[in-house]
Amino acid sequence: MILTVITTINGLTKAIEKFLQYPKTQNMIVIGDKGSKNINETRKGLQYYSFEQQLSLKELKSSMMPERHYSRKNIGYLLAIKKGANIIYETDDDNIPHSEDFLDDLSKGYVIDIRSENNVVFNCYKLFTDQFIWPRGFPLSEINSDVDYKINKEKLIGASIIQGLADSDPDVDAIFRLSRKYTPINFSRKDHSFLLPSQCYCPFNSQNTLWKKEAFALLYLPVTVSFRFTDILRSFVAKRCLDQFNLYLAFANATVYQERNQHDLFKDFQDEIECYINTPAVIQCLIDTVFHQSDSLTDCLLKIYSNLVLAKLVKEDELLHLNNWITDFNFVSNSNEV
C-alpha cells in the first residue's frame, strides 16, 4: 500500500486537491501545525491531523515535537507506517503532479549507476539539464566543479529511496534565487533513474520522494536544525546508512511542477546559513563514522547523530528526539493497522 504524507499550513491547496484525484496518492496523511488553516471537510482518502490532534497521539513520543517546525512531518511518517504502508510517497502542498501516472513515471525504468571518480559529491541535476543549477544543500565550494563520471548501463539496480525532480521552480537554495531573475526551469524527460554509487553524496529533499519499506527508519527529520536544513541533513545521513546496507538512492525525472508558496527569500537565506556552512563538516563526519556489521539502521542513526552532537553540528537535544523516533518507529512497525 502506498501512503502519501504532506505537511501544510495552507489548508486544502491545489496540489492536495490534485493528489486526492489520483488513486495511487489519495490515501493521504496531511500534517498541520500550530496556526495552520485546518482542513475540516471530509474527503475520500484524506486523513488530516491538526496540531491539537497530533498532541493527543499519546502513544507516540514524537507527538511532542516542536511547533512550527517541518520536523512535525515525522508524525505523518509514523502514522503511515502504523497504517501498513509499504511505500511512503512524500511531497509538499505546492508540488503538483504532471499526470495521473506520475508515480509510475517516478518508479519506472532502469536505475543506472553513476560512477563518479574520486569525488565525494556529485550534482545530480546535471544529469537532467545543461543549465547551471544545483540542489539546495549542495556544497557551495563544489558548484563549479567539473566532475567526470561514467554511466554503467550494464548494472541495473533497484533503489530504496527515489528523489523525483520538480519542474518550473525546482528546489534550489536562496543564493541561487537571490542572484538571478526567476525563469522557469524544466528538466529533460528521461525514462530511467540515476543511482549514486557508494561513498558519493548529493542532497535530496522531501518534496517529491518515494521511500520503500526497507528505508523507513531513515525518514527521521532532525529537530534541532533549521526548517531549511532538516531534510537536507536527513538526506546525507540516509545516504551514509544506505551505503552500509548496500541499498541505493536514485534521482529520477521531474514528475511534478512546483507553484511555490510565497517565500521571503532573505529569510530563506538566513534559515539556510547553517546548511551553507556546515554541510562539508557533516559529510566529513559521516565519512568518519564507523559502523559494525551487526548494527541495525537505527543503530547507525544513533552513531551518526551522536557524532554530529560531538562535532556541534546538531544540538544535544537531537538525541532525545531521535530516541523518541526509534521507540515510536519500533512500536508502529510492530503494530500495523490492517
What's this, in brief?
With 338 residues, this protein is α/β, with parallel strands linked by helices.
Strand content: 15-25%
Classify the helix fraction into a percent range. Answer: 25-40%
Uncertain runs are none
| Number of strand segments | 11
Characterise the protein shown here.
It is a single chain. This protein is α/β, with parallel strands linked by helices and 338 residues long. Helix content is 31%, strand content 18%. It is built from nine helices and eleven strands. Strands 1, 2, 3, 4, 5, 6, 7, 8, 9, 10 and 11 form an eleven-stranded mixed beta sheet that branches. Helix 1 links the parallel strand 1 and strand 2.
Any chance you could write out the topology, listing elements then pairs?
Blueprint: E1 2-7, H1 14-21, E2 28-31, E3 46-49, H2 51-55, H3 73-82, E4 87-92, E5 95-97, H4 102-107, E6 111-116, E7 149-156, E8 161-167, H5 174-178, E9 193-195, E10 208-212, H6 230-244, E11 249-258, H7 265-288, H8 297-310, H9 317-333
Parallel strand pairs: 1-2, 1-4, 2-3, 6-9, 8-11
Antiparallel strand pairs: 4-10, 5-11, 6-7, 8-10, 9-11
Helix pairs in contact: 3-9, 6-7, 8-9
Please tag this protein with its features:
globular; eleven-stranded mixed β-sheet; alpha/beta; single chain; 338 residues; 11 strands
